[in-house]
Design goal:
With 229 residues, the chain is α/β, with parallel strands linked by helices. Helix content is 38%, strand content 16%. A five-stranded mixed β-sheet has the order 3-2-1-4-5.
Length: 229
């Protein structure tokens, strides 16, 4: 099951009034685990940055001037998300902006049902409690000290951790859910963790290893440790 945790930064609150997207960040999850694949793009909004928005994300006119316009990256973005479920905090805001940009390009709109709103989930789980991303980080003990300004990719990475806690923990089904059966000759497209290129070094000190060996030596020839060795 592929999911995309997504966030955007904008020049304001309303695309129909001229506001535009200036940053998109997204993190890929497979079976509720981060794969390491991300999408990140700064975007030239083709307008000046209001001071109020600059104070939120710190993306100014000089920085964004040489970045691609949305029309140059829209198709690439759609290809990345595909039909995967989109995990978004306050999904109505981001989908509204993304669909406005896509509509102006003549590209397909993102269906509303493709998005899963973590803000709505949090409000249902913790009624009456603050449900901002920072508040949820405090609730779940997630380190967000690097979040001095809003940033789409950083916020997506943090939201991925929050989302997994909201649905029941970082491995909600402990990989026990049944996998779909493959037909004969059909390639296996399931994501699996890649093998570590270099084995991790032992964390035992020489003194600890020697003490362990001495202890095992006192257990006798029938000791299970010796059979495993």
């Amino acid at each position: 099951m592929r999911e995309i945790v997504l966030d955007t930064e904008t020049t304001g609150f309303d695309p129909e009034s001229g506001d535009r997207i200036v940053e998109i960040g997204a993190v890929e999850l497979m079976n509720h685990m981060a794969t390491g694949e991300t999408y990140h793009q700064y975007i030239n909004p083709e307008r000046s940055m209001p001071e109020e928005a600059f104070q939120v994300h710190g993306l100014g006119d000089d920085f964004l001037r040489d970045k691609p316009k949305f029309a140059q990256i829209g198709r690439q973005f759609l290809d990345f998300i595909g039909t995967s479920k989109l995990i978004i905090h306050n999904a109505a805001f981001d989908i509204k902006f993304l669909n406005a940009e896509l509509r102006w390009m003549g590209l397909p709109q993102i269906p509303w049902e493709q998005a899963l709103d973590t803000l709505e989930i949090a409000r249902k789980r913790f009624p009456g409690s603050p449900a901002s991303l920072d508040a949820l980080c405090r609730r779940f003990g997630i380190d967000n000290t690097s979040r001095t300004l809003h940033g789409a990719l950083l916020d997506s990475e943090i939201l991925a951790e929050v989302y997994l806690e909201l649905i029941g923990g970082r491995q909600p089904d402990f990989a026990l859910s049944s996998a779909p059966e493959r037909k004969s000759g059909e390639p296996d497209t399931r994501w699996t963790p890649k093998p570590r290129p270099n084995p991790l070094p032992s964390r035992l000190t020489e003194a600890e290893a020697a003490a362990h060996a001495e202890f095992i030596g006192k257990l006798g020839d029938d000791a299970l440790w010796k059979q495993l060795g």
